[in-house]
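EI: anyone free to look at a 339-residue chain?
SC: sure, send it
EI:
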Amino acid sequence: MKSLKFFGLGLGIIIIVIVIFLGMKVKVNKKSAYSPLLLAMDWTPNTNHSGIYVALAKGWYKAQGIALKILPYSPAVSSDILVSNGKADVGISATEGVVADAASGNPVVSIGAIIQHNTSSLAALANNGITRPRDFDGKIYGGFGAPYENAVVGEVIKKDGGKGDFKNVTLSIDSLQALESHKVDFVWIFDGWEGIQAKQQGIGLITFPINTNGIADYYTPVFITSPKEIKQNPQLLKKFMKATSQGYMYAIAHPHETADILFHAVPKGTFTNLNFILASQLYLSPRYVDSGRKWGLQDKTTWEKYPQFMLDSQAIVDAKGKPVTKLNFNSLFTNQFLP
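SC: here you go
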């Protein structure tokens, strides 16, 4: 009887241990069911990023086994640096960043174009007396401190018969505020963001789209990763791009719902006007991809023309500050991870 009691006690302990072990195993498996992936942002949340937030809200990253974490934008360190140094798995950048990274010896690779065509413009107040790009000669340009700005702005002016002479000052305030306060004569804006803001605020602008005024079309923004990540985690990148593609395709078809998702998905106080986000989304949704084309697809010629212009203009330097005149453009992008 005594031995039977001990047997029963021992059996009970074994069962408890097994239950605890199984419980721990379930927790471990549950915790490891998703692969962590860090995404570095290029700016504060905006409609360029809508497809990401849609995919998160719809659970499409989790469906691919991905636990996506968004690293907020910081002016102290670029998304390119985070990606090239392995602090982020993927990020958002632009053609200019990808070219500059390759030249400096810290390469990243574009794995998908968020928007198919450049949607930026040079802009001035409509009542400023400027009617064409060559009128920018002798004027003050409010820029963001990038090394390629002088080359691009100067080329736009020259293509219209001007000299390309202007003063470049780096802004510390919003571009529209700089225009309205007459601190500068013209700025470089994104039509789907500042262009929408100007319309809603009743600010009359005259704009000159970059890609129809002497500058070759290029991709901005783009998703990037590192050569090391491509080598080590190609399947994870494919899964990330599949879920992301779903998000952007949904945003194309459902701009109203997408605007609402973005507005409520970001930290409270990021946006104050849902109507503005909706207007921006209605502008961008049909521009994420051309009709009959796969979202994210990148063309070789697009990755050659504008980057070559940057090199020819000596706007890109290496780690020692010397102008770079030649790059392997094929190494700057890939479509292999698109679904």
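EI: The first strand starts at residue 35 and ends at 40.
SC: 👍
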